[in-house]
TrEMBL record:
It comes from the Bacteria. This is Deoxyribose-phosphate aldolase. Its EC number is 4.1.2.4. Keywords: Lyase, Schiff base. It comes from Sphingomonas oleivorans. Pathway: Carbohydrate degradation; 2-deoxy-D-ribose 1-phosphate degradation; D-glyceraldehyde 3-phosphate and acetaldehyde from 2-deoxy-alpha-D-ribose 1-phosphate: step 2/2.
Length: 304
């Protein structure tokens, strides 16, 4: 996975960003008019969705046993018979990562020992990001020290809502430093940011501050991952890659529970960034329920 070195804070570049909400809605309407892949192509994309999935459990009643079961599923996401029917050898398919709260990092690491599946931990006051900055930084430090290879930090929405981009930049930069060698995914909570321009600016600020990935949502907002918000983020990632040559990852998360939703996200990323972005290094789904529906659709494909 590539590391984002970040850029110095650039107020002028942030203020210069304006995105027309109606233009985004229009572009999404045109995109959704295209049919989704069918047949074997559809099955192949669904397998890619599994490989790019951060298989997630973020519940107050999580236990080590539940996390062990999740990790077993991350190692072997589909039943052997289905895998075989799809032409894949045992062990050829795994999820991109397992995503848990800090308290579940240790059981996840134990359950994933010997595999190369990374543990991602949500952090920085997840899901609202409203605890003191020192507490949020310490949480990131502790999760990295506990062995999380990826840290999903949430931004404090009020900085974006009030246009305090410097404070947002400084905080994400501090999380980046606290994460050490771990990769940082910055969660924007786009459903709470209100406008396309704000989503674009928050995306750019997190990228400037050194986020390796930008992620739509925590899964806990009233509005989670939406295609219009995703489109805005993808275009910021594209512009950044054009200007700097640095590839930032993208993680839609929250409410993505059906195979058709997953396919739509994959096709949107392919349209905006190209197929080279559709690898676990640059693209992840954050999802707690998606795998069940993807499995059902693959079973139906094999049975057809
Ligand atoms: O980061 C991942 C999200 O919390 C997952 O949301 P979900 O439970 O709606 O799939």
């Amino acid at each position: 996975m590539t590391r984002n070195p970040g850029l110095p804070f650039d107020a002028a570049a942030i203020e210069a960003l304006h995105v027309d909400d109606s233009e985004i809605e229009r572009d999404i309407a045109a995109f959704t008019a295209h049919p989704l892949p069918e047949g074997r192509e559809r099955a192949n994309w669904l397998l890619e969705a599994i490989a790019c999935m951060d298989l997630t459990t973020l519940a107050g009643d999580d236990t080590p046993e539940r996390v062990e079961q999740l990790c077993a599923r991350a190692r072997a996401p589909l039943p052997p018979t289905l895998l075989q029917a799809l032409g894949l050898a045992p062990g050829m398919l795994k999820t991109g990562a397992v995503c848990v709260y800090h308290a579940m990092i240790a059981p996840a690491l134990t359950a994933l020992a010997g595999s190369d599946i990374p543990v991602a931990a949500v952090s920085a006051g997840f899901p609202a990001g409203l605890s003191p900055l020192s507490t949020r930084i310490a949480e990131v430090t502790e999760s990295a020290a506990a062995g999380a290879a990826e840290i999903d930090i949430v931004i404090q929405r009020r900085h974006a809502l009030s246009g305090d981009w410097r404070t947002l930049y400084d905080e994400v930069r501090a999380f980046r430093e606290a994460a050490g060698q771990a990769h940082v995914k910055a969660i924007l909570a786009t459903g709470e940011l209100g406008t396309a321009t704000r989503i674009a600016r928050a995306s750019l600020v997190c990228i400037m501050a050194g986020a390796d990935f930008i992620k739509t949502s925590t899964g806990m907002e009233k509005v989670n991952a939406t295609l219009p918000a995703g489109l805005v983020m993808l275009r910021i990632i594209r512009d950044h890659a054009t200007r700097t040559g640095i590839r930032i990852g993208f993680k839609p998360a929250g409410g993505i529970a059906s195979a058709d939703q997953a396919l739509a996200w994959l096709m949107l990323v392919r349209q905006e960034l190209g197929e080279e972005w559709l690898t676990p290094d640059l693209f992840r789904f954050g999802a707690s329920r998606l795998l069940d529906d993807v499995e059902r659709h693959l079973e139906a494909h094999v049975a057809a």
